[in-house]
Amino acid sequence: MLQAIADGLLNGSIIALGAIGLTLTMGILRFANFAHAELITWGAYVALAVVAVLPPLVGAIAPFSFGLPLLIGIVVAMAASSALALAADAAVFRPLRARRSESMTLVFASFGVALLVRMAVLLIFGGSAQYYSNELTFAVEVLPGLMLLPDQVFTFGLTAALWLALHLFLQRTTLGLSMRALAENPDLTRVNGVDVARVTRWTWIIGGSMAAIAGVLYGLSVQLRPEIGFHLILPLFTAAILGGLGNVTGALMGGMIVGLAESLSVLIIPPEYKPAVPFLILLAVLFIRPGGLFGALGVAR
Amino acid sequence: MIRQRLLACLAAATAIAAAQSAAAQDCTINIGAVLSITGPNAAIGSAIGDAGRLAVDHFNEAGGAAGCKLNFVLRDDQGQPNVGVDAAKTLVSIDRSPVILGAIASGVSLPILTSVSVPSKVTQISCCSSAPTFTELAEEGGTQGYFFRTLPTDRPQAVVMAKIAKEKGYGSVAIIYVNSDYGNAMAKNFTAAAEAQGIEVTDVVGYNQEQASYRAEVSAALKGKPDALFLVAFPADGATITREWLAFGGSKQLLLSNAMRAREYVEAVGAQHLTEAVGIDNAQTEGPSVEAFNAAWTAEKGSPPEGPGLHTMYDATAVALLALEKAGAPDGTAIRDAVREVTGGQGTTIYPGPEGFAKAKELIAAGEPITYEGATGPIKFDENGDVTGPYLIWGVADGELTTLDQWDMARVDAALAEVSGQ
Amino acid sequence: MTGLAIYLVFFLTVASIYAIVVLGLNLQWGYTGLFNAGIVGFYAVGAYGTAILAGPDRAALIGGFGLPFPLALFGGMVLSGIAALIVGLATLRLRGEYLAITTFGIAISIQLVALNFESLTGGANGLVGLPRPFADRFDDPDLYGLVFLAAMLATVGIIYLALEAVVRSPWGRLLNALREDEVAARALGKNIAAIRLQAFVLGCMLTGLAGGLYVGFIGFVSPLDFLPILTFQIWAMLIVGGSGNNAGALVGAVTVWGLWTMSGLLISRLVPVGFHAQAGAIQTMLIGLVIVSTLLFRPQGMIGERAGGARFGRSNAPPVAKDRNWSTGGGGQQP
After folding, report:
1. Per-residue pLDDT tens digits for A66-121
2. Would you identify the CATH topology of the domain C3-315?
3. Quick one: closest CA in B to C266, which residue?
4. ipTM of the complex model
5. Are residues B96 and B243 in the same domain?
6. Which end of chain B lies in a sparser environment, N or C, as judged by fewer CB atoms within 10 Å?
7. Does A186 touch chain C (CB under 8 A)?
8. Is B283 inside any structural domain?
9. Are B53 and B91 members of one domain?
10. B131 touches chain C (CB under 8 A)
């Protein structure tokens, strides 16, 4: 039970990081971006390429399984995922927005972009499972019945730090305030002279960076495959909707809830059905409280 | 743009038709194979295709079959049944292949069988599909005898593994299995055999393929603190599961299914963690027929044949071609009827390789009986087109896959009798 | 018949099965603007429904009712409709993308049930020995193939004509009006959610019908038949053909499936085996490219919409109305 909660929170951290970016694009750019999950895959693989290219400068930093190359890899991956997000926006989404296409057209285009990115990853990196490090680290029994890997503590800590940073950014900076304003009332914001293009750009950069980190953490705790993003689409959307669109803290909580529910569900249903758990949560939320548990739009109203 | 594309398609179709008529003049028989070159089984598919091609090459060196040269046509099913069925249909109707070799996944082989091979009266021989449903379908008469497979059925394998668990003195075993026809059957048969011998099976946990994390499954299997883990998986998933299993304090005493006998698996987990692991695989490790194949493969590829499906694919192809020679014409039904005449143990023994096939051709021409002894050893199809075969037990030592033990057919039969008798 | 002709019969049969799915999708997306991201799920429900109702009785299975094929086919359609109803009721009063996400989710969940609910679906083994309708009355497999194709073409023809009649009916014109200007339609006092729900369920029932016909044609069903890639393939068919146009849907089905199989054939002949893995990935990328570049460069598709303006190009409603529409729905809730 304790183990299941810990596993759930760790998985939830990764879902939460992905969902933060998704909730921002859904709140600010106003379309459900199916390609968002592929930014996770892309980031994870870019970090893998960095780790493969760099010499292991100082070896693994005890007690973790990774060293400096992976930390550099995270930074490069953040840049790469942001770049991919911006490129997709410039090539596909912006022209469609400029034409005032319906939002469903954008959703649909994102469906196509997702397929393209996934296949590109498959083409470049191959389809078999890969790891950042082939060294196995062993879990430590923290409490009776609770085993944790050092890497998992890192994952949890990093997620908490990123959430705090993002929260402060949205509360304290002009850019952050513009983003919130745009999420809450686009017409008014446009009239009041907010630079919409700039806000859009930063929405992609923040979303892409968070996704890249999520991807690296995923690869660290599990493995890399071209399908990791695809399998995360449903948990990500569920977390974002559960938290309320545009709500960063909500997405974080939503991610944790989805992660916990997946992990705890194994205690009552066969694990084979676990991937359906986010769908059941989603259905329940849409029937009962479609605005999400934590209120839609705006970070803290 | 679209019109150009349509024209391009038309041009391609014409080219194919032209190739066909050209082929008829030279008297070439296309031998069609449907395998996964892309998709979930891509890691093993292309090497399996090479094994089939090698058998066809050997036959061509021996002078072809049924008076014609042979042309190996490999089609990709992408791991998708609809693509596989379409590929098989083109092989049968456009390429006029009298046999279909493949597919790998049972979920692709079966629709090919029911919608292409049986209606078109073409013999299908699979290297790799292990589902019990083929046997079921054959018993109902649904295959009309057109289906054979050179991969032994799973039940003996699970029984042998349960016997090994007993010999090693494991009191309790957990099972993690891939939720597919293959994994399901293995888990069920192992559980029955283990319990029959007084081994406690603590948890039986299925997992869905190609997930990123198997932590929940591993946690569930760890619950009962078993002495050992029986893992039925494919190399990539299996490595992830093994890593998580070991990292969270699982026993190093691992029992591994046949598909895990791959270098990829050992490297991903780390050989030093697998010293207490034992696995099983189909194949006879010794004997002149096996060495003939191993030597031919090594000469061609530069490395010994390791990995699932290579030996069985070579045999599937060789049996098909010997039957074609025996039948004397590229006719699916005649080939079907000839399959049992070139296998089964009656007549002069034929080994893999060009010399063996040349000898077979002479004997067939003379009307003498032959029996093929292949890369997996002697082959005998039962009335459902299934084979039972010998097994080898493998382990990991000094970072390499090594063979620890062998189970010949007599020993397997004894184990089967013992378990079902109890 | 020559080999090529035999293959063409086979190819057209499969293409007409997909054409039915595309027609159903066209009703949802082309005429009503509903984004179904889980086509493969409804296709699977129809297929399994038909297989379970028509299949032979087996001890290990719950199903196997041995019903006559047409009856089983109808049952599969109804089951698909019920699945659509569940999803539709949850989402169709909300912003459009909720339907997309939920349909995506139900497809994954249906796949899981197919794989794991062994006593109903046969699990990973699938269901074998399913009857191919009237196959026992034909000795010649090629003749049977031809008759099956004729039946399929007739089915497609009937559905096509029925849909053409539907979209010209008052109900169909309402769909169009709703898609173009929801606010105006609402002002006329129309129950928008109910109308959308009807279109969505009807489209999914057609998808289910196609799934059942696929089972009849192949005689076997397993979870492998319902990979997510199929959803993309169907979408590519609609997009290439041009959504909002039933004839376009038919052309798209034949063209895209033709390109897909033909490129596989060419790869097997022209590309060295070592590069097949890459070639396969590129083949799938082409679908993504087709989707994206059609949206960008030729929103009306190959054939284009017959009436009422381009589907993708722009919304005909004034921008302000559209945005208002958005902000009211922005929180996921519509008043």
Report:
1. 778 888 999 999 999 999 999 999 999 999 888 877 778 888 889 889 989 988 99
2. ABC transporter involved in vitamin B12 uptake, BtuC (1.10.3470)
3. B12
4. 0.86
5. no
6. N
7. yes
8. no
9. yes
10. yes
